[in-house]
Amino acid sequence: MEKIEFNYPEAKRLITKRAHVGVVGSGDMEVLLEPNREEGAQVFITTSVNGFGDAWKAVFDRFFSKFDGAVRIDINDAGATPGSVLLRLEQAVEVIEQ
Amino acid sequence: MAGALHVHDLILLRTEPAVTFPEGEPACAYLNPNQRPWVVVRRERISDGLLPVGMRGSERNERCAGFTRWSEVLETRRPDELRLLLAADSRRTLLAFQTLAYLECRLAGLDENWGPGGSVGFELASGIPAVREGSDLDLILFAPKKLEITEAQNLWRIISSAPGKVDALIETPFCGFSLQEFVTASPRKMLLRTSDGRVLGSDPWDLSNGESC
Questions:
Q1: B111 Cβ contact partners less than 8 Å away, ≥ 6 residues apart
Q2: pTM
């Protein structure tokens, strides 16, 4: 079990909706995406697989290079692949941008 | 999956070196080198006659993806066969095995084939201890025909009343998906695991409508 946090202060666009997608099951993860009470965006990850901090950072750097919403993202991960992480994030964004 | 093998099936290989790894990927050691080499069929296309298999490494959560040849396969076990090999003795007190025993009674009338995957399936096939105190039960249910939502909800109600956490995956002829997500997300999109990768889609029994990405 490992906890990882990232901050993206440049993500300032106001977000009003929240999204809850995915499930905590083998190779998958649950994402809660909601308006952040703090300035910028924050990511809080709890993962069952240790030692992948750099991979998570690469995924979120890529995500926040396109997404500028001031959101708080909470992730409960059970070993999702980087491809699944991006799919789940895209799915959550689709929900809040509807 | 071609032939008689399907994703989640466990196979016993003739020898451990029968698994090859993609170039540049490190080879991984078995949980216990003195045990017989059981591996699991992975969800990937077969190319050049190579079977995609996964091995459990010596560390917790360590998994390695490799390939083997059909000619190396000595024995096979499907999840529904493994269900009938419920662990004996002291291992039965582990929550994941108790959960399987509970579901064995509750799901007796089910038309669909089902059985354990993950660490429970691996331990039942190989006899190598892999289940831990906190292990979930990975449950695989085969649904060649469309599962109606009310049927899925009933199934999920039974499964979520089990003593331990169950990670239930439904397998259609085209992909695998989470039962929990199916009953909570329907009719929204969900994560579909196909042999070409993962996509978001809403109909796991029909991937032909082009809306799955």
A1: none
A2: 0.88
